[in-house]
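Design a sequence for this backbone.
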């Protein structure tokens, strides 16, 4: 399951989070595992990005895998890793216009779209923990497609 540490005032639905986790688990035939989800702001994510990736700027999400073995590791172990999400970035919806078009969703700057983006970023982080990489365009598009499928299966729209 996902253990949440919320260092912000961001509110979200625990039921949707659980459905998303189960969708991910079922998609990849995994047993229950544990993921730490930490919600932070610009300053903290920038610190982490600088410390671990040597990039001195804020980002939307960082993942720290418990192992580099991806799905193989997740199938055999309980603790999968950590996902850090910058909840301030979720409010910058215009930044995600291209991504929403790529997953065939209309542009929208609503609270509903912010909520969708929050769960989409969690799905994206889970995929990184499973060993998916978005360094190349082909792989990024694959991750977007799978992320959308996970949210559809979890009935998050």
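Sequence:
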């Amino acid at each position: 399951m996902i253990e949440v540490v919320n260092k912000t005032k961001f509110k979200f639905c625990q039921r949707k989070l659980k459905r998303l986790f189960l969708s991910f688990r079922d998609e990849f035939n995994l047993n229950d595992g544990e993921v730490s989800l930490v919600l932070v702001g610009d300053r903290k994510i920038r610190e982490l990005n600088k410390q671990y990736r040597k990039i001195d700027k804020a980002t939307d999400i960082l993942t720290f895998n418990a192992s580099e073995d991806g799905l193989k590791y997740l199938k055999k172990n309980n603790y999968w890793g950590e996902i850090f999400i910058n909840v301030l970035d979720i409010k910058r919806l215009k930044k995600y216009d291209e991504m929403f078009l790529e997953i065939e969703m209309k542009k929208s700057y609503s609270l509903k779209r912010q909520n969708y983006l929050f769960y989409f970023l969690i799905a994206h982080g889970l995929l990184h923990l499973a060993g998916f990489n978005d360094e190349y365009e082909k792989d990024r598009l694959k991750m977007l497609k799978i992320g959308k499928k996970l949210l559809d299966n979890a009935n998050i729209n």
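The CA atoms of residues 2 and 35 lie 5 Å apart.
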